[in-house]
User: What shape does this take?
Amino acid sequence: MNIPALRQLIERARQHEARHGTLARQLESRMQHLHPAICLPDGDGLGVLTQFVEGYLEQVPELLEAAHAVACETGIEAQIGPVLKVAEHFFLSPPDLVEGQEGLAGLLDEAYLAHRLVEEINDRYIAFLGQPLIPLDTTVANLVAHRLIGESFANQLDEAVQLAVNGLLGNTLLEQVSLESSRNRLNSPTTVAAWQAWPCLSRQFGVELQLSRATG
Assistant: This one.
């Protein structure tokens, strides 16, 4: 995993934002048009959304680093390794459809691809094994990011994720996995303890999604 390259990319994007304020302008222009389900704490809504985006980006290398460390420590690298490489590729070499934006605003698209990939892989493993491959729930954060990116374009990114997942897992790969062996590895005390050593993965961004407000 090329974690330093990921962090350097984020730092360059942060410097770009400090000079140009592209993300701040983009978020400010969307503040009045946020989906009603997105609930911001009272006070500086723009500041909270900016912090959310920065945290969402920073969580990508943290997640990949944590997952790689756990995979190496617990012997499940064969399962996790390919997922991490595709997520890393999404971030460092994104598909053509996300080109055109720079700085933190541009990286939000790449981060969404990486997070959604892990979410989709987890969904497949939950359906097959009854538990996620990587025990990190970013569903709410991904839904908020989806709204910030914009419905139409975020749906295109979702399609790119689906294609990647289908290519990564195929139609029969999970069927070839031993249920008992996989569950034993994911449930082993070593694996559980390794994930618990990464509390940053459960970071709260201060942005909530209240679905009842969407239909009220």
In short: The mean pLDDT is 80. DSSP finds ten helices and two strands in the chain. The radius of gyration is 18 Å. Residues 94 and 183 are 33 Å apart (CA to CA).
